[in-house]
Amino acid sequence: MPKRILEKTALEVSRLREDGVYAVGGAPGLHLQIIGGSRVWVFRYRFMHQRRRMGLGSYPAVSLASARDAARQAIALRDSGIDPLKARADEREAARLANALRLEFDKAADAFITEHESTWRNAKHAQQWRNTLATYVSPHFGQVAVSDVDQAHVLRALAPIWKTKTETATRVRGRIEQILDWATAHGHRTGTNPARWRGQLEHILANPDKVAPVKHRAAVAVAELPSAYQQIASIDGQSARALCFLILTAARSGEVRGMVWSEVDFDSALWIVPAERMKANKEHRVPLSRQALSLLRKQHAAREELVEQVFPSNRKGPLSDMALLALMRRHQLGAVPHGFRSTFRDWAGEMTHHPRDAVELCLAHTIDTKTEAAYRRGDMLEKRAAIMQDWADYAHGRRAENTTDGHSSAPIASTRDNTADQHNNTEGAMQ
C-alpha cells in the first residue's frame, strides 16, 4: 500500500526554503522542488512501466491549489491510458500550428498585393491599394485574423464613408472582398465572404448608384468637337499634339502618352498598341486617318535622336498623367481627355450608320458575352479605317464624303493609302 503523504498547507509550503524535493500531498506524485532558491512544481508518475517527470510551473506564480488541480488532471489522463507529457506536447504543437495559420488581415492584404502587383498594368496601383486599406480598413480590423473577419468588421470600415465617399467606399469594399477570397483560397478562412455585395451587403447598405449616381467624365458635345479640336490644334507643345492625336484615334490617355515609335507602321497606316499597354491586355491595331498620319510624320521629322516617345516630355520620357488634363483646364475646355471617347461614341451613334460593333472595336472595348467573343475573331480593320477617317474629317470641320447611310463613298483603301503627304498642308496640319 502506497505511503500516505500528509497534505501540507499553503502556509507550510511558503516556509519551505532549503534545497530539496518535498511531497506536498493532495495529489499523488506532486512535489515542490527547490534548487538554489528556485522553487518549481513537479509531478512524478509512471506510464507504461516508465518513470516520468512533468513540470507544472514555478512557485508562487502557480499556487498550491493550482498545482494540485494540474496534477489531478494529469492523473486522470494517465489513468485513461494517455501519457500526460505527450498530451501536453500535442496541445502545444496544435496551438503553434494554429498560431502559424492565424493570418492578420493587414498581413493578408500585403501578401495579396505582393502576389498580384506584377500583373497590374499601372505601377501606382499597388500603392493605391496600400493607401486605401491603411486609411479605411486597418484602423478597424487590420490586426484581426482573416479567419475571424465578419460582416460587423466590414461594416465598421464601410459605414462611416458609404454616403460621404461612396466611390471610395465601393472600391474599398471590393478590395476587402478580394483579399478575403484570396485568404479562403489559401486555407486561412472558411465560409462566405462578408464583404461580398450580392447576397450579403446589398441587404444592409444603400445601393451606391442611388447614394451617389455615377458621374460620367465630362465630354465635349458632338457639335462642339470641331471647334474644340481647332482650339487645341492652335496650341503649341507636346501635350496639345498628344491631345489632338488622342482625339483623332479615340484612344485612352495612357495609351497615347506611352506611345513609342516602334508601335507605328507608316506603310500600313497603323498604330499597333501591345497587349501590355492595353486595358483589356490584348493587342490593339488602330487604323490611322490621313490627319493622324500627317501629325505623326511631323512629330517624326522633329524627333530628337534616341528619343523613343512619340510625344516626349521635357525629360524625354512619357508625358505625365496630368499633362493633358492640365492643358484642357488652362484653356477652359470644360471636359477631360477621356471624355473625347464619349464624344466619338456619340458622334458614331447619332451622326453615322457605322456598325455598332465596329465602333466598339475602335474604342477597344471588350465583348460583353462569351458567346459573341467566341465567334468574333477578327478586328474589322477595314471598317474601322473608314470610321476613323470619317471621324478625323469631322474633327477638322469637314463633312465626310458619306452616302446616305453614313459610310464613306470612296473605297476604304483610299483612307489608308500613302498619299498623306499630299494632304499635309490642307488636311492634317496642326494649326
Helices and strands in order:
Blueprint (H helix, E strand, L loop, with lengths): L9 H5 L5 E4 L6 E6 L2 E10 L2 E9 L5 H16 L4 H18 L3 H12 L8 H12 L1 H4 L9 H12 L3 H20 L22 H4 L13 H9 L4 H12 L3 H5 L6 E2 L4 E4 L10 E4 L2 H12 L21 H8 L8 H13 L4 H7 L7 H6 L5 H15 L24 H9 L3
Antiparallel strand pairs: 1-2, 2-3, 3-4, 5-6, 6-7
What does this protein look like?
It is a single chain. The chain is an alpha+beta fold and 431 residues long. It has three domains: 10-101, Integrase, DNA-binding domain (Double Stranded RNA Binding Domain, 2-Layer Sandwich), CATH 3.30.160; 105-211, Tyrosine recombinase, N-terminal domain (DNA polymerase, domain 1, Orthogonal Bundle); 222-428, hpI Integrase, Chain A (Orthogonal Bundle), CATH 1.10.443. Helix content is 46%, strand content 9%. It is built from 19 helices and seven strands. The strands form two sheets. Strands 1-2-3-4 form a four-stranded antiparallel β-sheet, covered by helices on one side. A three-stranded antiparallel β-sheet has the order 5-6-7. Helix 5 (125-136) packs across helix 8. Mean pLDDT is 85; it is low at 402-431.
